[in-house]
Each structure stands twice: as C-alpha cells, then as structure tokens.
Amino acid sequence: MFIGKTNEISRRAFMRRTGQLAMAGAASSYALGLTGIGEAAAFSGSGGYKALVCVFLYGGNDHGNTLIPYDAANYNRYLAIRGGANGGEGIALARDSLAASVLNQPAGQVLTDDIRYALAPTMPRLKARFDQGLMAPLLNVGPLEAPMTRVQYDNRSVPRPPKLFSHNDQQSTWQSSNPEGSVTGWGGRMGDLALTSNTNSMFTVINATGNAVFLAGENALPYQVGSGGAVQIGALGRNVYRSGAASSALETLLRQHNGHLLEADYAQTTARSIEYGGFVNNALDNSSLTTDFGNGNRLADQLSVVARLIAARGSLGVTRQVFMVSMGGFDNHDGLIGQHEGLLGQVDAALDSFYRATVEMGIADRVTAFTASDFGRTLTSNGDGSDHGWGGHHFILGGAVNGGRFYGTAPQVSVESNDQVGRGRLLPSTSVDEYSATLARWFGVSDSELPSVAPNIGRFATRNLGFMAAS
Fold it and tell me: How far is it, in rounded angstroms, from Cα 294 to Cα 353?
C-alpha cells in the first residue's frame, strides 16, 4: 500500500510554517527567513561556495527533436513515426542536418538498441561541452511516485503522479513533487537546509524569473531579481506627484505595522525590498565580470544577472545558493520545425555564456546548471507539432559534472514498446526525485535529509545517478 507521502510533507510544511508564524507574531516569515529555523544541522556547507541553477523550459520541451536518433536503424524508426524531413509533411529533422551534431559514443557505454544520438543542430556549444566532458544528458526523466512498469501503469496498481499531461500541475510536480497548490519546492527545501551556512540568509534562494514554487521553502523565501537587478518599488525611486514629502509618506505607509499577522508579513516583505534593493544593486554594479551574454535573449539576460550575483557572493555573504531562471515558448503543438530549433539555439547560447562566466570567476566546478520542463512530448506528430507527454531528456552543465556520457536509460524509438504509454509518451525510467537527490548530495545535503528534499526517494534504489563528481 502506498501512502500519500508527498501530500503529507506539504501538509506538515504548511502546519510548521503556520505554527512558526503564530509564535513569531509580528516578526512574520521575513524574520523566520533570516533566523534560519530548520534542520540545518544535517547540512554540510563546508568546501567553499556552491550554487545550483535551475533552467526551466516552460511549455514542455520536445525531447525528440532535442536529442535525435542518428544511427541508421533508429533514425529510420524516428522518421517513420514523426514524418517529414527533406520537404515532406511531419516534424522529423533531416539526417544530413545532424552530421555535425553527433555526440561521441562514450567508451564502454552501449545504449538501448545501440542508439547513437545527435544534439539539435542549433546547439553546437552544448555539443562541444559534452565532448569536453562538462555536459551530461539525463535520459527519460520525469515525475514518479514509485518505480513503474507499463503493466502497472495500465492496471493502475502503482500510483501515478496526479494530473499527468497538465501544464500547471506538471510544472508544479516537477518543481515540488505535488501538483498545483504546493507550498514548497525542492530548491526551496534545499535552501531551508542551507540557510545557516550563509551570513546573510536572505540571498540563499534567488528567483530571476518570477513566481515559481521551486524556490519556496518552509523558511527560505525567494529573493526576486530582474534582468536589471533587484526588483524595487518604482514609486520610491522618484518623487510621487513631484513631491518628496509624498514619496516619504508612501514609504512610511508601506513599512507600517499593525496587529494583523498577514499585514505585518506584507510590511516586512515590502521593507525587505526597500532595504536590500540598493545593497543588491550596489553589489551588482561593483561586479567586474566581463563575459558577453549577447543581446535579445531573455534567458541569457536572466543568467547574466545570476552570474553577476554569484560574482558578488562575497559582498552578499553567501556560500550556498539556489537560483531559478526560465524560458517559455515550448508548447509547440504547431510549427515545431523552425520555432523549436530557434528556442534551443537561445538555450544553447545562454547556457554556454553562463558556463564561460563561471570559468572567468574561477568557480566552474562550484556552479551547476540543469534543465527541467513541464514534460516531454509525444513522439508522434499531430501534423506540424507534438502533444503533451511525460518523460523527457535533460542536461546538466558545469565543471563538477561527469560529462561526456549519458545517464538514465535510453528509450526505444517506438510507439508500441513498454517504455511508453501511447503515442510515444515516455514512461520515465528515472524519477525527478533521483535527479534532485543527486544534485542535493553534491550541494551538501546529507543522506538522512534527502527525503526532505526528494520526498519519494525512499521508494527508489538510486540516490546518486552518478552525473556529479564527488566533492
């Protein structure tokens, strides 16, 4: 019998935060974030600075045209299912366009059906990083509550993640282990454990992309930045109605406390924005980072500010940080060919610039970026796009990555095999919990605390997938 462990963790998180707020009174969650209440004793912050950067691809990335079968037998299966190439109707990429993108086959590693993969042609930089041993693909990863076979899926004898194939719910499930409405994410739960490692715990978890549950902890509160720096209250940067007195009065009102707990919490959050905005922007302005992130790439803009914040880590008083950036546009039901390659090209350029920035800072082995998405897509085409799937392929990039080889299990190129649940929707062979646990161990989370980060990990045999070097 399976117990709803993820729901229980969310319930306990809510109850603990509510209880802590009640004890704190007007101090609110802002104060709790600074004091770092939590089980931090089981976290190792030794060994110098470390950061994790989640790169979320909103909409559901089409993994079938990101890592493409290249050997003749598997490419022909791919072409027969997806259709198209060389002017035909469908969504397969032409094989001759992939020749420069073929990934070297690692010594001693044989994948399912002897498959050879090529990376999308618009991702030459990540291809080079794979060849250098700095990038690792994780194959067929997705949310699971427990290991599952196709027979178990069909018989419903093992619980499925709730609300499969739904954008909002699967975004939340990837980020938190629960569907929409979750109150904590696994990035935030790592932040909870890391709070006391930082002199200024305010900057333990930083969101450069907008609200997302991934960085919400029980005590760790995401500090939000934009591409230009700290997100500040615009009216306080100038005279309101051309009056300095009006501006001062507005600030007083925004900071004002009273006995209502939620209003006090809001006032403290507002005060944080006012008090720390200038401090953060000053630290960013003093950054000497020279890496060029290019122009007109929203993901690169976000990663640029993340890199500058990492460069300012000494001023910010941090040794452990979790960041989130994102890019949308991946819900390609139509117009996959052309549009999808363009999106992947932006991801390629942004991630490579970010890696070069970590090299410039001399901490490439201290910073790890990794991708995630709502879900993979169907292998079948709906004409000129693909539909919502389940498992997909993702990438891990950094100097501490055991790159140049594949992790997880390569799926068969089929719409009839037992590693898919119809139309080529991949049944994940690796769980998000195994993915997050591997990253968490590198970050400093102890084995005893892994279930607080990855709540289903106890049901899986593997807590370390091996794509991160020991440190």
Answer: 8
